[in-house]
Amino acid sequence: MRSLLPGQTIGVLGGGQLGRMIILEGRKMGYRFVTLDPSEDAPGVQVSDHHVKANFNDLDAVDQLASLSDLIVYEFENIDPTLVGRLEQQTALPQGSKLLEVTRHRLMEKAAIEEAGVPVAPYAKVSSTDELHQAIRTIGLPAVLKTVTGGYDGKGQWIFRTEEDVTEWEKQNDAWSQIYVLEKFIPFLKEISVVVARSVTGEIQSFPPAVNIHRNHILHLSIAPATVEDVIRKQAVKLAEQVADHLEVVGLLAVEMFLHADGHLYINELAPRPHNSGHYTYDACNPSQFEQMLRAVIGLPLVKPTLYRSAIMMNLLGEHKEAFYHSFHQLPSNIKAHWYGKNEAKTGRKMGHITVLTDDLSQGLAQLDQLNICPPLTPAEEKAVWT
Ligand SMILES: Nc1ncnc2c1ncn2[C@@H]1O[C@H](COP(=O)(O)OP(=O)(O)O)[C@@H](O)[C@H]1O
Ligand SMILES: [Mg+2]
User: Fold this and answer.
1) What pLDDT is stored for residue 68 in this prediction?
2) In CA terms, which of 72, 78, 166, 363 is 20 to 30 Å from 326?
3) How many Cα atoms occupy the beta-carbon half-sphere of 205 within 13 Å?
4) What pLDDT is attached to residue 1?
């Protein structure tokens, strides 16, 4: 197969910040882009050559995207796999609808991870009061209940610490109109993630694992390389690649994991696309996750990632906009700023990110504090970074 050449057009399903960064990297390589997104001013649309303005369930628009594209990628997973299947019939869509189907459905995802021989937290399917109580008896408390599809940034999930939490949840959610999964709460030491690229030829390359700190269920910081022992870093990469191989991923697979105090790793979630915890690669690695994804779907040889310097990526949310603007003119040269061009700075909305490149992690964290954009690390967060 001859791979796509510069000048040819890549279609992107979704115009969010991930699409934007894929496109910015791909334009350097000489590709042209057409984006399908309902919004005229979406971050990805702003940097595309063409825009198909429509909802993701608009079949005519999907066909139009196919006719304009030599190859199509998706940049988020909450799209209907049948629609992606329709695109697959018409044009090259190397990521495929199968991977999407599995990773957008927590139960299918967990089953696939287990089939790959990789551990997940004990879990059970829950779609009735009886099943919920049975699951709690088997799994025990504390536990986390999650909707099987559609959740992100902690939306669609509840932590049950006591029986009262369960009763309270049942009072407010008695309709059982959707399926849930109940998971054992893992008292993790830290959360780490690995972004794996796998190409159409089966070649695999992974980025260095990152340690992730969440605030209000939204990623706050990613630190790479992960502050864990070398054996844990190697094990994390091994498990992530094992899953990517089993799923026959083409493109990227982001693998989120919990590191338990006993040293075991459990896989939490997968994403078949660039991941927020891989944004550090944009400035700190050759190649970035976005370039590597394009190389993987196009069929170019993958590049073994080089991490130039240690990196701390911090998300800029809607509520950080003013403080970020205030510091913007005085950012030191080792801090790279990215702003996605979203029009409305809502609380909790990812507006941009900054990456600190440093040879000394404590100094890098101190530099972040001096910017005064976000409150400094709490003692618990410090512990998660350094322990
Ligand atoms: N089983 C669990 N044990 C402990 N913490 C959990 C568990 N599941 C989720 N969490 C916490 O909630 C966060 C969000 O959950 P996740 O499954 O990754 O959903 P989302 O799709 O919202 O990212 C995780 O990053 C972790 O901090
Ligand atoms: Mg997650």
Assistant:
1) 97
2) 363
3) 22
4) 55
Q: How far away, in angstroms, is 159 Cα from ligand 2 center?
A: 15
Task: Note residues around ion ligand 2 (Cβ under 5 angstroms).
Answer: 269
Domains and CATH numbers, the chain: 9-93 (3.40.50.20), 122-184 (3.30.1490.20), 188-386 (3.30.470.20)
Cβ neighbours for 219, distance < 8 A, ≥ 6 positions apart: 212, 213, 276, 277, 315
The pLDDT of residue 245 is above 90: yes
Ligand 1 neighbours (beta carbon < 6 A): 121, 144, 151-154, 183, 185-186, 191, 214, 217, 256, 268-269
Burial class (CB in 10 A: 0-12, 13-18, 19+), 381: middle
Q: Which of 192, 213, 329 is nearest to 265 (CA)?
A: 192
**Tens-place pLDDT, residues 169-185:** 999 886 888 999 999 99
DSSP string, 326-359: HHHTT--TTEEEEE---S---TT-EEEEEEEEES
- What CA–CA distance (Å, rounded) separates 294 from 29? 10
Pick from 248, 258, 293: nearest CA to 273: 293
Q: In the prediction, which pLDDT does 357 show?
A: 98
